[in-house]
C-alpha cells in the first residue's frame, strides 16, 4: 500500500498512512526514539494530505456529474427524449451523492 506520486490520491491509503504514522510516532514517544517520532509525524502528515486530496477530487467529480446530469436532464425534457432526461437525472443524483460523501469537514 505504498503511495507513489504517480498514483491517484486514495482515501483508504491516506487513512492507512495517517494511522500508521500516528502509531509510529507514539512508539517513538514511548521509547524516546526521536527518529521514530519524526518519521511518524511525516507519515501522518502525508496520509492526511493524501486523504484530503482524494476527498477534494471526489467532491469535484461530483460537481461535474451533477452539472452534466442536470444539462442532460434539461435537454431531454426540452427535446422530449425521456431516456436522456432519466439518464441525466440519475447522473445528477450520483453527483450529489458523491459530493455529500466527500464534503470537506
Descriptive overview:
This protein is mainly α and 105 residues long. Helix content is 83%, strand content 0%. It has three helices and no strands. It has helices spanning 11-31, 34-79, 82-101. The radius of gyration is 21 Å and the shape is rod-shaped.
Quick structural summary:
This protein is mainly alpha-helical and 105 residues long. Helix content is 83%, strand content 0%.
Kindly estimate the percentage of residues that lie in beta strands according to DSSP.
Answer: under 5%
Euclidean distance between termini CA atoms: 25 Å
Q: Could you name the ranges where pLDDT drops below 50 across 5 or more consecutive residues?
A: none
The string of secondary-structure elements, in order, is: HHH
Descriptive tags:
105 residues, mainly alpha
Give the helix/strand layout.
Blueprint (H helix, E strand, L loop, with lengths): L10 H21 L2 H46 L2 H20 L4
Helix pairs in contact: 1-2, 2-3
Amino acid at each position: 500500500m505504498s503511495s507513489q506520486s504517480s498514483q491517484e490520491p486514495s482515501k483508504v491509503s491516506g487513512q492507512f498512512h495517517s494511522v500508521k504514522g500516528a502509531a509510529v510516532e507514539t512508539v517513538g514517544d514511548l521509547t524516546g526514539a526521536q527518529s521514530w517520532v519524526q518519521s511518524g509525524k511525516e507519515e501522518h502528515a502525508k496520509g492526511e494530505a493524501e486523504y484530503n486530496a482524494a476527498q477534494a477530487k471526489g467532491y469535484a467529480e461530483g460537481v461535474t456529474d451533477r452539472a452534466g446530469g442536470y444539462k442532460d436532464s434539461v435537454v431531454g425534457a426540452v427535446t422530449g427524449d425521456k431516456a436522456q432526461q432519466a439518464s441525466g437525472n440519475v447522473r445528477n443524483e450520483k453527483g450529489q451523492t458523491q459530493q455529500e460523501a466527500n464534503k470537506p469537514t
